Amino acid sequence: MTDRLYYDDAYCWRFEADVSACRKAKKPGRWEVALDRSAFYPTSGGQPFDTGLLKWKGGSARVLDVEADDRGEVWHTVDREIEEGTRVRGEIDGDRRTDHMEQHGGEHMLAGALWEKLGGVTIGLHLGQEDSSIDADLPEGRTHLTEEEIAMLEDTVNGRIRQDAPIRCWFPTAEELKKLPLRKPPTVKGHVRIVAMGDFEMVACGGTHPSSTGRIGLVKILSAAPARGKIRITFVCGGRAVRLFQTYMKYADKAGAALSCPVAELSRAAAELKYRLAEIQKKANRYETGDLLEQFRAGESRETLPGVALAALTLPDHEPKAVSEAVLEYIREPGKALLLSCGERLTFARSADVEIDMNHLIKRVARGGGRPELASGAGIPECVETARKILLTEHRT
Ligand SMILES: [Zn+2]
User: Fold this and answer.
1) Long-range CB pairs of 64-70, under 8 A, 24+ apart, other chains included
2) Same domain, 194 and 292
3) 112 in the same domain as 239
4) pLDDT of 174-209, one tens digit each?
5) What is the pLDDT of residues 99-110, one digit of tens each?
6) Domains held by the chain: number
7) Which of 224, 246, 268 is the last residue of a domain?
8) How many whole angstroms from 43 Cα to the centroid of ligand 1?
9) How far is the CA of 91 from the centre of ligand 1 (A)?
10) What is the distance in A from the centroid of ligand 1 to the CA of 209?
11) Could you tell me the pTM of the whole model?
């Protein structure tokens, strides 16, 4: 069983060890190495593995994955074979581990505050590449948090982080364990490891934690939404929270400059802009509708069908809303029939007093359908001419 150095010191990122076993991994060019002692964290409890190097006299191998087996042996997947008995120096990627400790530490603080303030029981944790999340059961099956509750949780957690309370990890005796005020009962039996973060959080955990709450830095909730009947709270901590703030500020500043307003006024300015655009769009549609109506009237021929003004037109693409408004307005007048190709869309329509089944007609020349007075579909512009010829043949008296 590997002696796990991170249990006693989560900042032990350089260590010496002996290779106790080396075997070929399933993937070609990869080996799995067991050490008598290791500070590399194996994926477990929602926290991803560490990466880094194993160095020895005359060589080094990259650690690409770390997993623990059922017997407690930690296996390091490396890109070079290392002979059993070799003395190696382990070097952990400190940036990656610091990031994991910040996210994991923040998760504890958030889970502790959720339990204390809202009675939420955390049932799952996921540390992702971009953000992390906890799934929790809230009293009465709630799956939402209000804006105020989210702000309260953030303020509580960040206030506790600023207190820079010590974080302690240890293996209590069975007797001591019984008396500890744990947030929830341990899921493992036997050798239970406890983490206590000031007076704010105490729970069983085998992960790596910062030495004090201050080293978590910052916790920011990104969303709280229902997920599989629970609530999922997504968040970022530490350096990730700072980087996210920088990104948001960069884009918020740019948007503010574009809209000539301070960041706090952005939502109002955007809403106003949206309203104005809609008004302009309405005007433009009205203009386009009028323009289309003129074209329909200019294209009419009264010679083809007795008593009916037939407009068979092929027009370039137009705003769909303007087209439908123009068509409806056009057929409100009596004695009109319209065969229209606009872009890739066909519209066949007629006034209430004209006896042509447009639904039937469009189906004979293209893919589409609708009602006897108004039908639409997709087809090539030539369909209009084909339909016109059908009308000429079948409806001329
Ligand atoms: Zn933990």
Assistant:
1) 64/30, 66/40, 66/41, 66/42, 67/42, 67/43, 68/2, 68/42, 68/44
2) no
3) yes
4) 999 999 999 988 887 778 999 999 999 999 999 999
5) 999 999 999 999
6) 3
7) 246
8) 13
9) 22
10) 6
11) 0.76
